[in-house]
Amino acid sequence: MGRILALLSALIGALLWALLSLQPPAPLDIEAPPTKFSAGRAFVHVEAIARKPHPVGSVDNARVRTYLTGRIGAIGAEFSEQAFPLSPKALERLGTWSGRKEAGVMGHNLIGLIRGADPGKPAVLLMAHHDSVWGSPGAADDGMALAAALEVARAIKARGQPRRDLILLFTDGEEIGLEGATAFFTKHPLASRIGIIINMEARGSGGRVNMFETGPGNGAQMRLYADKVERPATNSLAVLIYDLMPNSTDYTVAKQRGIPGFNFAVLDRPWSYHSPLATAASLDPRSLQDMGDQALALGSALAFADRLPGRTPNAAFADILGRATIVYPAWGGWVILLVAAGLIGAALRRARSAARTVGRGMILTVAILLHGALLLTAVNALSGSGSSNYYDRLAAIPRLETIVALLVAALLMLLGHLRRPENRLIAIMVAMALMWVGLLSGGPLIVTVVIALATMGLSWIAAAPSSPLPSGESEGAVLLLLIISAVVQATLPTAAPLLQWPLLLASVSLAARRLLPPRSALVTGAAAAAIGVGHLLVQAHFIFLGVGAEMPGIVILLLFAALPLLLPLWPERIPGWLPGIALGAALLLALWVRLDPMAPSVPDYSLANPVKTKD
Known about the structure:
615 residues, alpha/beta, Aminopeptidase, 2 domains, seven-stranded mixed β-sheet, 23 helices, disordered C terminus
């Protein structure tokens, strides 16, 4: 009974941790002090900008430019404009939206300069784009960023004359190929004076605003971020993943030229991305406040700094509970691994666990993960992955995320059955059935078959009747996590915190079970699980918003990190009807996603010519 209570306490604690981490700050109204960022003041700009769609070259693009020109002047900045011709590729893309042959269209970058006390110092650049896609009012992408930049610049100026120049750059043509950013950074004389950039973007209209990209050599930058941003949302894995992805924003152009920077974006409410429903009413004012608070904290610190942060080796970092950022040199991961290895070693010596027992636990862990990967791949195919409209898939993300949660819950509730040797044939038959579900639903052939065959093989080995598994799987799970964390540390050290932080908590829990009285050990294990799993839930949410619609299997990586925290608390058996309900609900949701009509949020141009325009 105590184990079940500990598990329930840990799961409730993890959910509370995640919910607190994911809540944006309360918006400040228009009466906020002038040196503060006010979402109320900024929202006035969003409403003015997002009245109608305003793609490059349109009448409403000119209307937005006129409004922004007036606002730049109103905050006391010197205004200038850079006109540039669109490239043939951009004109072709614009033509796919308009349905006509485009020629002679000009883009217009808007530039505001707030002079600092020492104009010889490298300048700070606040950047956003003022064009929208065809058919979308663009309240979030990128209206909220334009509004945030105006309000940040106004608040910085209210704090006095900055030490260095502060430049506003509102680019044009971002949505058709980063045209404005390319024109500015290749041709404008101010480009050579930029010392650091704060770029703001959106691929949603709610939730926390993530700092997801920096320039290379970000150690000093991230120490500044940790010191100045009170409500952070960031981690070094996101920076690494974005570097490996083909996606781009205006900052990509500057980054290729070696200019350091911070890139921010909001991801929640993904249905609003490039949507005709992306009006001001769809934007969460709390998210606008979040973007402004982070940008103002950094922008003010940089504008008034005597020196900008220099280039130092990339750091490992992540926020904790959305209230603090832990930053350390990438090599510091080896220290975490040594501490975890010491705790694990002490616990295993005390328990005198046989190598065979620990090895069997490692095999079972891999079998669990493979079952999960196969389950997610098959059900994702059943939901229509790979054959649906990209934007319709974004609209389905809340349901897809619920499906994944139900499947993972069902998998964990079936652990007791996977342990039992008499069920190995059933496990193999289930794996085969899932393989055919995935294949017949249009899932990837090679990936599905390989995962299914590996699952079948390990299901047989993990439950081999000649060597029944004692209750040592948690030791095997911890040791396997230690090994993989060391490999990640050696190859991709800035990605290691995702695994190493739960590993450290799991090793503390393991040592407590071997060195402390049972009740104290149970409390320690529940606390470690609540913190570790809560942190992983937050990362899972952000990762799913980024890539989960087409790659839900990525969640298995986080389950891998969570297993050593959950296994010691998990009951031996759970009534079979509970996982059955979870699986049934997941399958019904998957069929709903596959069969429901196209979402009203889908942009019209993607239906006529399904171009995937991702930021």
